[in-house]
Amino acid sequence: MGYSALVRIVQSLVTLLAMSILVFVAVYLIGNPIELLVPPQASESEMARAAQALGLDQPLPLQYLHFLGQALQGDMGRSFTSNAPALTVILERMPATLELAIAAALIATGLGIPLGLLSALHEGSRTSRLTLGLATLGFAMPTFWIALLLVMVFSVQLEWLPSGGRDASGTVFGLGTSFGSWRGLAHLAMPACSLALFKLALIIRVTHAATRDTLRLDHVRQAHARGLSGVRILTAHVLKNISAPLLNVIGLEFGALVAFSVVTETVFAWPGMGRLLIDAINTLDRPVIVAYLLLTVALFTLINLTVDVVCLAIDPRLRQAPNR
Amino acid sequence: MNTPALAVSDLRIGIRRDGAPTIDAVEGVSFTVAAGQVLAIVGESGSGKSLTALALPGLHQPPVTIRSGSIRLEGVELLGLAPAALRRLRGSRIAIVLQDPMTALNPVQRVQTHLIETIRAHRPMGYEEARERSRLALARAGVPEPARRLQSWPHELSGGLRQRVVIAMALVNDPAVIVADEATTALDVTVQGEILREVRRLARDSGTAFVWITHDLGVVERIADTVCVMYAGQVVEQGPAGAVLAQPAHPYTRALLDCVPARQRAGTRLNQIAGAPPSAGQWPSGCRFAARCPMVRDDCTRTPSTLSVLEGTDMPRSVRCLHPLTP
What we know:
The structure holds two protein chains of two kinds. Chain A has helices at residues 2-30, 33-37, 44-54, 60-72, 86-121, 126-140, 143-157, 182-215, 218-225, 230-259, 262-267, 273-282, 286-314; strands at 171-172, 175-176. By secondary structure, chain A is mainly alpha-helical. In chain A, a hairpin with a 2-residue loop joins strand 1 and strand 2 (175-176). In chain A, 33% of the residues are buried. Chain B has helices at 49-55, 83-89, 101-104, 111-120, 127-140, 146-149, 159-171, 189-206, 217-223, 241-246, 251-258; strands at residues 6-15, 23-33, 38-42, 64-73, 76-77, 94-97, 177-181, 209-214, 226-231, 234-240, 307-309, 318-320. The chains are: A mainly alpha, B alpha/beta.
């Protein structure tokens, strides 16, 4: 356990390092940010001065080493455009993205797991086939299209929900969040639903497949033979068994929700991290891009680690040394 | 006369396939088991013995259906019983031990969880009391260090121990009948021997009736009071185990006995029954064993054989053969 945790941490550090090099080189190849930062009529010497101020006159390897040295001290550099610390710029936007991801994850798991279970319990019934068919449809429809459709129906036609923006005026435990007021929830509803749809489809299918396979196992038949109630069999002998694979999927997908909700945030003008990344790429704001992607890697690592620990608690077989 | 623990009469089990007529996979199976007795059902794979075993506690699943007959558990008819009522009897009055001990336990639940939930599914009982009762059940099933084993996870136990845990689960509520479907087949011989001894002791001490499904006549010899020999979905011979094994009346029983290596002289070729049994839905019109029978006569392939009482024996025996072997 201690050893595997150490391996995991070293792996994560290597990933972070590789990621930072990759992003550095990639942004360098795309273009010179100086040309975007200074006014078009600026003279050669003005551009050189700006480049010098941002450290962009140095060779790339030196720039990278400089960045690395700063990063190790917790300083991810300053945004080229706003001159604010890159990390602060990102963290300011994080709550908006997090609450969108959490809302979407709640919808996807809260609906997906029961629907997946039911469709496996009533395998072959009309309701089961309909659920699975709709789930397949959910896979096939692109998120941005769903988002536009929702806006068309609920904002334009029915005028029930606002078409974009975020309202964090309500508070929960003193934190300003969309969950704090009805207006906040109304703003959150459509982006969360459109983001959740694909994940919902995925969780339905994963739950369905895992449940169907588990129901066929001998220990479930043995549980029936012992006269256990249906609820007991479902919770103790089916749900507990499928929870480890399910958690792995949910963990990964939650990470993806946080990191890559760019499209949805754009459509609904949601002031989250995704839009920040797009803006940063457009202005070649390298410190923000690098900090964002490193944060993403750290987030995925953290989620995976959490999932691993929870799975160890659930399944005793994983706790054994893999020597058999 | 006392009500037998289990009385099955004229059980007919069908397999329903989409669009095709229902096929009879088992027919005319009748037997009774008294408290404390062990009945063995012997046959090759495909003989219908496992279908019969699963049908007894109502665990058969579509496309398998019970078409007719009667299964009485302590005088209560199980066929046609509401699912909820059947569930209350399963695990409390009739229990089943399945073939593979490696998969019968849920890998993510401790041994004690399995036992305690089995108790509490059938009667309200405090956790500590149920745990103590579980410990006693493990001890009765011959699990060493039962208090420690309660805490174990299934994967920490050997195959033999797991099967003892499954047997402990079966007997934890003191059922009238325990059905065991090839319960020792997956275990090695010494473990099998120990478990069979435990089973005999349990039958004697707690008055539990056992229905022991096996393909192994050696097992029958060691534990059974009575035996049912099945072939191609029918009972071909039944009676007291000692008498049937000593002097089989049906050529199939004789052939099975001849295949037991321990009964053959050293250095001779191992016997086997030539050919394969017919499969459900393709039953021949005459005796179903005729095609493989070494003593087949002309009328065997034309006249269906019926199960009839064997004359000239002092104990009740019956045989399904037009020309039974005479002792």
